Amino acid sequence: MQSKRLGWILLAPTLVILFFFGVLPFIYVVYVSFHSWNPFAVNPEMVFNGADNFRKIVFDSAFLNSVGVTVMFVFFAVLSELIIGYFLAQAFMRDFPGKAIFRTIHTLPLIMAPIIVGSVWKLMTTPSIGIIPHYLDEWFGISMNIGTSAPAAFATIVIMDIWHWTPLVTLTLIAALVSLPQDPFEQAQIDGAGKRQIFWHITLPMIAPAVVATVFIRLMDALRTVDEVWMLTGGGPGSATRFVGVHIFKEVFPKTNYGYGSTISVIVLYLTIVSCWLLYVTMLAPRSKKD
Amino acid sequence: MANVTIDKVIKRYGAAQVMHGVSVDIEDGEFVVLVGPSGCGKSTLLRMLAGLEEISDGTISIGGRVVNDVLPKERDIAMVFQSYALYPHKTVYDNIGFPLLMAKRSKAEIAEKVKGAAEILDLTKYLDRYPKELSGGQRQRVAMGRAIVRDPQVFLFDEPLSNLDAKLRVTMRIEIKELHQRLGTTIVYVTHDQVEAMTMADKIVVMRDGRVEQIGSPLDLYDNPVNTFVAGFIGSPSMNFVHGKIASDGSSRVFQSDSGLKLPLPQTTAAEGQAVTYGVRPECVRIGEGGVEMEIVAVEPTGSETQIFARSGSDLIDALVKERISARPGSKLGFVIDPEDVHLFDRKTGQHI
Question: Which of A81, A84, B73, B345 pairs with A211 at a CA distance of 20 to 30 A?
């Protein structure tokens, strides 16, 4: 009994913080999502409007567009991060001159705040002063303007995300690769497997739990990307990079449409949970018997 | 099936040379055991045979083909690791069938061969299980199953029994031997356990520090060890060694130990006064009248036989006798040694005289 009570006492601060900063705001957001509320309007009162917000969201083309853009972004960014991260991890498993320095430099983007990353990339991509449009023009004769070209803006954001978050994938995959036993790989060579077969039959299944965990983290992060995009393109041009996070931000802050913004947040949370659950069911659950 | 030739093989790691010109000829269908203490290079040699380690110098050929630069998967060999190296995410069926899948065999053929191997190894009930759901002995058998479905030219075993308990080890030893008789495939087997080597091998290769000390049949090594290392390594309990010199005892010559113990000598070319190491196996020491009087240190009965440790001065002798002995430590007994059973070694070089 004594140790149980001590356990709760030690947990208490975390639970209190979690309650006030996690659970309570969440309940409040759900509560607000059933209201029409614009505190800066002529009528600042919170008015209960039932499921109106939710009904509206289904036909809100701006919102649906933002979901589409986000899904595309997450797909391209996370997939590229996984592939590049895996190759980097494999490279770091070998010895080469300058490995320690290169590994340190390669993780630097991770420690930068997203808002800083956004500003730096904005500086680098702004036409006339940015280094990227400058050399694209000088070397390849391509003119790039993320302020006017939707594909350029979208691609830049995907590349920026890859630059920012691939090191995280690399680090988790290195950890997974390092912990693998060597014998099955040697056995596979003797059993007649080539490099590609070893990857598909041995390496990938054995690091799959780490891969799925990494995808979880990156998926949840990428689905709520706001600051970098806000800084770099502000969601534009048009709505080309208006991800759901940006969409919610625009709905709540410039428009001060708190009720509807909360509804979108609840739906996005729901979609995030569903996609993670799908990932879990398809990739991890069938394995649990083996591990 | 194939013969294997290891010719003057050298292995270097950077500047350090760990194998110094090892040569072994293995006949087709032979069961060869590489044995030696840890660090003697036996596993490295096996891994070079498998293609998992590069050969710094010399050649290895399998079935007449030099395989120095041939990838493991093209050597047509199968290997069983000490850890079994099962694929943890694959079922027993998929583990055993993996080499066939890699060889792009048809599903029907894989099913037939896997089932055949499972029957031989008594694994039929476990085909749907994952490795973590199996006992050590079953995992061991899965690893062997994966080796036999390939029908390779050579089987390589790297201490396959050392993770098993003593009883299971004996069972598996017999199973592997049976398997060899049934398949008739060449086997190269690495172990540090001389009992395994003695009981299983057609031919034993004793190694030390990256060199071959002696090659021969188990009984040949037991009867005619070339030096003190092989003499001490082969046989259990290991051979008694007493250091001393050849002395004269009136008309005849005897062995006299450093502490003065006198023991009978066989016919020998060793000269009087020559420093020698006197070797006699415990099972060749008998108890009887007219033997050398020694003080009993300990008596260890095992039921079937009795092991007696006796001392004279600083010399210790270990005897293994069939009789049950009731002598107590501290009392004296006479020990008889037949000169025919004695091995004499040069004290400096350790070579058999």
Answer: B73
